[in-house]
Amino acid sequence: MPKAYIIARVTVNDPDSYAEYAKGAFQAMRKYGARILARGGKAEALEGEARARNVILEFESYEQAKVYFNSPEYQAAKKHRAGGAVGEFVVVEAFEGEQP
Q: Which of 13, 19, 10, 21 is nearest to 84 (CA)?
C-alpha cells in the first residue's frame, strides 16, 4: 500500500489562534501516526503564489491521512485556525510506478 502525504500551504493572520491550532494538530498527528517531513523552514515560490507556512506530513496510507484529517482531535484543533489563517490542504498518494 503506498504512503500518502498531506501538504499544507498557509498564511497566518493571527499567530495566537494559529499556535492553539498547531498545539492540537500536533497531538492529533502523534495519535494518527503522522511523520513531519517539513514544517516551516526556508521556502520560496518557484511558480504561483507563495505562502509563509508550509507543512508536509507523511502517513502510512491515503486512508490513514484522511482518518487523521477527519478525526475529532484534528477537527477540534482546526476550529482555532478558522479566521486566523488561510491556506490550501491536499492529500496526495505516493507514486509507486516505474520512474522515467
A: 13
Structural domain boundaries enclosing 82: 4-93
SS (H, E, C) 28-85: HHHHCCCEEEEECCCCCCCCCCCCCEEEEEEECCHHHHHHHHHCHHHHHHHHHHCCCE
Are residues 3 and 56 in contact, defined by beta-carbon separation less than 8 angstroms?
A: no
Rounded to two decimals, the pTM is: 0.92
Tell me how many domains the chain contains: 1
Model confidence pLDDT, tens digit, residues 27-40: 999 999 999 999 98
Which residue matches cell numbers 503506498?
2
